């Protein structure tokens, strides 16, 4: 093809036909421009195809992450509700007219379990990776906003959860330092019996009450965040699944 154009150019120059040569030159420039335009369009098409594939993959990863979150949040909600029911049961029994030091000892020493439910965010790596790589910008603006709002809530919930959890641990350690229970070194045996024999109603009641109140407050916060997280997670999941259909 190049040889063909060279021959035409050489012939026109030999014939000294300037007008025809000028038309030829313009035509050649036009062909070059068209060629460049086609190359750019082809490159853009390849880039768009590549970005579409990346976006599809990222949408699938986000859906998988949020589905895991949804399951985890719902399980935690059930756990919290069950533990809240136990706390209400303790309070109800301790407020009975017949309640005494033995009732308090039985609940604190044998029934109360110190484990506490916290919200876990173990599936945020996908979103974090998209932010770091910049691939989050391949998603449409509305979907990016929805994701940003959701994962900002993750951060806020975790920070609040951690603060309340630390407060609970402080009160729990104060209780355990005087009254060993479920996981203490001397939870059973003569030493433990001696410790609990010396327990006084006021001291034990104050220590246990602080732990119960702290745990109750923690669960009140966790429940509020879980309700919001479950709702927003399901909403974003729907948006991602709609985007998946469009992207395919």
Outline of the structure:
With 248 residues, the chain is an all-alpha fold. The protein has 7 helices and no strands. It has one domain.
Structure description:
The chain is mainly α and 248 residues long. It has 7 helices and no strands. It is rod-shaped and about 105 Å long.
Topology (SSEs and partners):
Layout (H helix, E strand, L loop, with lengths): L1 H13 L3 H77 L6 H11 L13 H9 L7 H38 L11 H8 L3 H47 L1
How helical, in percent, are the residues?
over 70%
Mean pLDDT: 84
Biggest sheet overview: none
Number of distinct beta strands: 0
Order of helices and strands: HHHHHHH
Key terms for this structure?
single chain, 248 residues, mainly alpha, rod-shaped
């Amino acid at each position: 093809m190049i040889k063909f154009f060279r021959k035409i150019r050489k012939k026109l120059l030999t014939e000294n036909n300037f007008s025809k040569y000028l038309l030829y030159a313009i035509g050649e420039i036009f062909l070059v421009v068209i060629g460049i335009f086609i190359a750019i369009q082809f490159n853009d098409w390849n880039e768009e195809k590549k970005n579409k594939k990346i976006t599809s993959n990222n949408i699938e990863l986000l859906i998988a992450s949020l589905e895991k979150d949804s399951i985890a949040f719902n399980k935690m909600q059930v756990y919290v509700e069950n533990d809240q029911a136990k706390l209400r049961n303790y309070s109800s029994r301790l407020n009975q007219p017949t309640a005494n030091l033995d009732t308090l000892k039985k609940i604190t020493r044998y029934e109360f379990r110190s484990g506490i439910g916290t919200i876990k965010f173990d599936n945020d790596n996908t979103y974090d990776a998209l932010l770091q790589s910049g691939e989050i910008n391949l998603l449409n603006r509305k979907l990016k906003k929805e994701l940003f709002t959701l994962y900002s809530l993750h951060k806020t919930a975790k920070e609040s959860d951690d603060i309340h959890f630390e407060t609970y641990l402080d009160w729990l350690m104060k209780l355990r330092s005087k009254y060993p229970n479920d996981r203490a070194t001397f939870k059973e045996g003569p030493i433990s019996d001696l410790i609990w024999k010396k327990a006084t109603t006021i001291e034990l009641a104050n220590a246990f009450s602080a732990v119960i109140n702290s745990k109750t407050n923690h669960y009140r916060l966790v429940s509020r965040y879980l309700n919001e997280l479950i709702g927003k997670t399901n909403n974003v999941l729907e948006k991602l699944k709609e985007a998946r259909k469009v992207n395919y």
